[in-house]
Amino acid sequence: MFQLTQLRCFVAVATELHFGRAAQRLNMTQSPLSRQIQALEHDLGVLLIARTRRSVQLTPAGIAFLPEAEDILLRCESAALAARRAIRGDAGSVALGFISAARFKVLPEIVSGAYHSLKDIDVVLKEMSTPEQKEALLSSRLNLGLIRPVKSHPGIETVCVLRDPFTLALPYDHPLTKRDHLTVHDLDRQPFIMYSPSDGRYSFELLSGLFRAAGVEPSYVQYLYQTHTILSLVSIGLGIALVPSTAQHLPSERIVFKQIELGGASAELHLAWRKNDPDPVTQSFRAFILGLG
Predict the structure, then answer these.
(1) Residue 176 and residue 186 in contact, taking contact as beta carbons nearer than 8 Å
(2) Counting C-beta atoms within 10 Å of the first and last residue's C-beta, which end of the chain has fewer, N or C?
(3) How does residue 87 score in pLDDT terms, banded at 50, 70 and 90?
């Protein structure tokens, strides 16, 4: 099989149509250049270049072979560049997991920023729950994850990338929409749409603890996991709800969002990754995400 050196020699001669100029271009003498061309023709079993004392011309086989040879060389250079860039973390692929709550603010900022600043990194998005992401990180099915806070794990590192205060979502005709100052005590006995204690455990425990500490007992009408589903029920007047403030990015004419005093309670979103992950592309993308804050 022919070698890349032979292809480079052939392309130089085919471009210059002169052995002397081709040899200068390659920084070599004519004799080894001629031997490389002859070896290539021997390997292919065809004559590529017709050479006389007065001229150098490509044969029909040479004309057909030239663009293919140029393409092979270009692809080899691209492959080498991709390998070098991957080592530097400039190019490659990253699998990024995210929970639904990340869709409102953090995820769009990451995707938009990566599109403009990291064009050679392919971001594969995977919507998964926090427990699913932990398992996927440990099994190397994910490189990074956007999750709710979790108990420390020896194989996973996390850092908070967003603290999102809760806001009160009300049906547009609810009496509390007329109030200027709201506190957690205004939720007592109110029909309330709550996060699921299983699928939405983080928000459920956070809000339940807040209500217990304040001696407040909302009247729970539904337990749901997805914030946008909770808001859809608020919009039809089934109840009120506390949702992360970034959920206001999903506007509805039938929902009024009101600030409420909750003692600083907020929902945290963490970036998670495998501890000591050596992948330079993952490290580069992680640094990019952390730099957005």
Answers:
(1) yes
(2) N
(3) low
Asked if 39 contacts 10 with a C-beta cutoff of 8 angstroms, the reply is: no
Tens digit of each residue's pLDDT (9 = 90 or more) over 100-136: 899 989 999 999 998 888 888 889 999 999 999 999 9
Verify that 154 and 241 share a domain, yes or no: no
Please indicate, yes or no, whether residues 69 and 106 belong to a single structural domain of this protein. no
Give me the CATH number covering residue 100: 3.40.190.10
Residues 6+ apart with CB under 8 A from 13: 19, 22, 33, 37, 49, 56
Gap between the Cα atoms of 144 and 151, Å rounded:
17
Partner residues linked to 127 by β-bridges: 98
178-203 pLDDT, tens digit per residue, is: 998 999 999 999 999 999 999 889 99
Residue 250 sits in the same domain as residue 284: no
> Which one-letter DSSP state was computed for residue 93?
E
Q: Same structural domain for residues 28 and 145?
A: no
CA distance 194 to 218: 9
User: What CATH number is attached to the domain comprising 12?
Assistant: 1.10.10.10
Q: How many CB atoms lie within 10 A of CB 282?
A: 22
Asked if 167 contacts 247 with a C-beta cutoff of 8 angstroms, the reply is yes
Cβ–Cβ < 8 Å for 174, 246: no
Q: What is the C-alpha separation between 233 and 125, in angstroms, rounded?
A: 28
Phi and psi dihedrals of 254, rounded to 5?
-100, 5
pLDDT at 77 over 90: no
Same domain, 206 and 223: yes
Question: CB–CB of 40/109 below 8 Å?
Answer: no
> What's the DSSP call for residue 102?
G
**Domain assignment of residue 277, given as a range:** 92-160+269-292
Query: Shortest CA distance to 283 belongs to which of 155, 144, 147?
Result: 144
